[in-house]
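Sequence in, structure out.
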Amino acid sequence: MKSISVMKTDDPGINAERQTGKRQNILPHDSSELRGFGKRFYRERMGEDRFRSFVITCKDSDLWIGVDADSYCHQMKSFALEKLIELRYALESYIHLYPEFQASFVPVKTKPEDPAIAVEMSKAAQIAGTGPMAAVAGAFAEFIGKALLKEFKIDEIVIENGGDIFLQLKHNLVLSIYAGESALTGKLGLEIPALATPLGVCTSSGTVGPSISFGRADAIVIASKNTALADAFASAYGNKVKSANDISDVIKLIRKNKKILSSVIICEGKAGICGQFNIKPTSKA
C-alpha cells in the first residue's frame, strides 16, 4: 500500500499571529516554499500515483489538494482558490473587529451569526481548551474539502494544510509521519481506514517548523472526525509532552478522550501509540 507524508509546517503568518497577537505583513509566496521554513519537500511524496493534485495559495495559506484521477477536473482549482480567499476574508475581517480571537491562548466564544469558520474554530477550541487559532489550519482544510465534495462528484480527496489533513477515501491510505531529526521520522505510518472517513488527521510539533509550542514532541498526530478539533487537540496534547518521559501519561489522557480515534506521539526517539487505527512501517524519506 502506498503512503503519503504528513508533517507539521505551520506558516509563520496567520499561525504566528495567533501566538503573538500581532498582524504581520505577509506577501503571496511561491507555492513550493514556506517562508521561515523552506521547501515543502514532503509534498513530493504525496501519492501522485493515486491522486491528481494541485496547490492553492493566498497570502500565507498554502494547501495541497489531491483528488482521485477519475473524479478530477481542472475547474476544481479555481473553485478551491475562491473558497480559500472567501474564508480568509471572513476570518481576517472578524479578527479585525475582535483581535482577541487571534491573540488568545484560551477559548474565545463566538455568536451564531459570526462567520462560520470562526464559529467552527471557537467550538474546537472550547472542547480542546486552546485558543481558537490552534484550529485554523484544520478548519480551513475541512471547509474547503467539504465545499469541493458538495460542488463536484468526488470519490477520494485529501487536503493538506501545513501538516493538517482532511480526508474522504474509498480505499485505505497510509500517512507517513515526519518527525524532524528524530530517528523515527518517516518510519511509522498511520493507516486511515476508508470506512472511517471523512475525518481529519492533524500534527503538532515542538521541534519542527516555526509555530510556537509549549511542548517538545517531535510529532504528535491526532485523528478525529472533525479536522478543526483534531488540530486543536494536537496543539493541546502536544503542549503536555515536555520530554519522552511524558509520552505514557499523555497517551493515557488521550485514551480517555472519546473524540480521538487514534494518536501517535514521537519524542526523543521514542513513540507512544493508541487508538483504533493500525500503524504500518514505512520507508524513510
